[in-house]
């Protein structure tokens, strides 16, 4: 969440929320997205703020029509994700939005009122800001739900990742440029995409543009405006098709064009570093069981709390906790075990849950409390000191593999959602064909 809060101010600039306020007559519809719209004022505001971020580096930005199309596509994707989240029952309360805004203000060492004043000075209304935060939280939860249902990591995959880590101990900072191809691309579309990626590679080889600037100008990837930066990754976070290539590259080197499921790519190894090896790590673990009553489209927060209060009263009255968990808990991973979560560090399931468990004595039962998942009742059953060095390594490997799988599956999900959507660009510049973003005859020189 810290990273989310640090980045969310920039994400505000790309909010696709249609404001409830009265639209001025000069405002128009820039893009129709299924049953919603993106207003020209939203698109102009987002483009303007991207330009502000590149103050002093305007030459790195693509031509105005291409920049507008890139930003419009981001807004389209955000609107589609928000719509999908709402359609599948994902909800964010006003209180949760307020907490997120307070967190953002704290990250910027400001009060909420100071943040409000800064937004006004930057030309962004507080209502627009609130709506953008709500949208980002909705998308975040949609992604979390997607990960829980679509991504799994086997013990064999963890074993292989740890073996590879011990062999190399390296992490890689990567960046990429994508020339996207539609599903079922025609031979002509493939040829055009190949010509474009070869042109970009030629520009890089001749030193006419650095990789980050080329990504901003020519890449079709959602992270194009960040210079195509993919961040630091271990080998188990890199698709197998690329891992062997990356292992043999020197920092600064760029691959030849690679054909992947989403189109043609160029991959750059920015730098490497030693991942390090974890040693013994002794931590305090607790063991606990819980009963979860979810808040969703079928159960309101008030109804979930009332059910949790009733179950708590029964436990206080002598009912068996495990039996009630098996009968009523809505956590599929622990329900069959009577709510038993096994041994874990208090912060493993998030700060709200961890604070409640830490405050309990062994054998004690909490009063009902709320987290993002719903209403919980927790019974703490034990405490121990444990060396979790190897366990932590396995957990980290499982997390990084899951992150890599999630990225692949999520990007495919976004491509499919975008392909199925009705999107009509009404603004003149945003209708520019993507093929026009290709460098002009780069392979021939001047």
Helix content: 40-55%
**Total number of beta strands:** 11
What would the average pLDDT be, to the nearest integer?
83
Poorly predicted spans: 1-25, 430-438, 440-446
CATH topology of the largest domain: Triger factor/SurA peptide-binding fold
Let me know the largest β-sheet: 4 strands, antiparallel
Named at the architecture level, the CATH assignment of the largest domain is Orthogonal Bundle
Number of helices, where a helix is a run of at least 4 consecutive DSSP H or I residues:
14
CATH class of the largest domain: Mainly Alpha
- Content of β-strand: 15-25%
Within the largest sheet, what's the order of strands? 4-3-6-5
The best one-word shape is globular
Q: What is the straight-line distance between the termini? A: 49 Å
Please give a structural write-up.
The chain has 446 residues and is α+β, with helices and mostly antiparallel strands. It folds into 3 domains: 149 residues, Porin chaperone SurA, peptide-binding domain (Triger factor/SurA peptide-binding fold, Orthogonal Bundle), CATH 1.10.4030; 110 residues, Chitinase A, domain 3, CATH 3.10.50.40; 106 residues, Chitinase A, domain 3 (Roll). The strands form 3 sheets. The chain has a 4-stranded antiparallel β-sheet, covered by helices on one side. Helix 3 packs across helix 6. The radius of gyration is 25 Å and the shape is globular. The N terminus and C terminus are likely disordered.
Quick rundown:
The chain is an alpha+beta fold. It is built from 14 helices and eleven strands. Helix content is 47%, strand content 18%.
